[in-house]
Amino acid sequence: MAYEAEVGGRPGLGPTTDSAPDNIRARTAARSCSAERSARRERTGSVKLQTQDGERSGRVVFHRGSGHKLQIIVVRTDDCIKCPSDVCVKFKTEDIQENAVIDLVIPQRKYDDVVFHQTGNYNDFDRKNWNEKDFRWLLDLEGPETFNNKNFNRSDEKGFNTKLRVQSGRFYTYQRTNSMFKANVGILKDQVFNVAKVMACDIWLADEETLELRLPGKPVQSMKNPAKYEVYFLNTPSCDPCKMSDFPMVFDAVEDGATYKFDLQLEKSGPDEAAKGLCLKIGGSSVIRFSDEAPCMGAGFGGGGGFP
Q1: In which band, very low, low, confident or very high, does the pLDDT at 28 lie, cut at 50, 70 and 90?
Q2: H or E stretch at 104
Q3: What phi and psi values does residue 129 have, to the nearest 5 degrees?
């Protein structure tokens, strides 16, 4: 998965479910095979995005099985012209413990204020009304489209055991697939739709604030305003490019996942384009590959309640 975080200028993302402070600057983006929502999920290696009940922090949970390799890369965007050479990379590791808890925190801030970008009415699931950055392009397994707002019992025993906690920022869809899909579940049975291909979170910093990446067993990576950074969380599969969807892996996060498991069926193939505007080239015929037709996207668990 690729999760990118940039410390820098505030993007204009349009309407959101909650407002973010005007004096904050930064960005986070993601590719992985599953993420949990209160936060939602996206896929390339396996992650799960969520917010905890009673809190407004975001959580991403990575699947460490089935040949996926988790990497974290920190790039200072001033050096983007030197990418993809290692000159532009300020920190990179693949040595990440299973069961690790990774944090993106602002030490000067004593509160959590994660929000999720969406267009208009929260209950409007007519996709033609959504902005292309709407968070809901990441399918929510606990939302109304799939199992009618069912809350699942979560499990970390089948691979989803490495967690990222995000204290602040706005999560959104950075890139959708050009390909169109169908799914034999819920109200999705009657639709042909795009899905999220790359997810992001913009993190805004006040003048004296610092964003810290804390990873067990590694030095703390500090990113101070006004410098700009991108932090990538890449949980990529061994296939390159992949011919089959990894979407069913998201059900490894559910205790009785086999009962509910479904896959995305490709309805219309679209061009395989790289994500634009990032220092590292991911997707398309670029350095870090993933297929538009099998985007390795994850899913969300919008019921909240946390993860083991």
Answers
A1: low
A2: strand 101-105
A3: -90, -5
285: amino acid identity, one letter: S
Average pLDDT, the chain: 77
DSSP helix/strand/coil, 283: coil
Instruction: Give the closest residue to 194 by CA, choosing from 209, 182, 202, 207.
Output: 182
Task: Name the 3-class secondary structure at 155.
Answer: coil
In a domain, 81, yes or no: yes
Secondary structure (DSSP) of 210-278: EEEEE-TTS--EEEETTS-EEEEEEEE-SSSS-SS--GGGGGGGBTTHHHH----EEEE----PPPSS-
3 state DSSP class of 114? strand
Q: Has residue 307 been placed in a domain?
A: no
DSSP 8-state class, residue 257? H
Number of structural domains in the chain: 1
Residues of the domain holding 116: 2-300
Q: Taking the chain, what is the end-to-end CA distance rounded to the nearest angstrom? A: 21
Alpha helices (H) in the chain, listed in sequence order: 257-260
Residue 308, in any domain of the structure: no
Residue 306 lies in a domain: no
Q: Report the b/e string of 260-285 with b at 16+ CB within 10 A.
A: eebebebeeeeebebbeebbbbbbbe
| pLDDT range class, residue 276, cuts 50, 70, 90 | confident
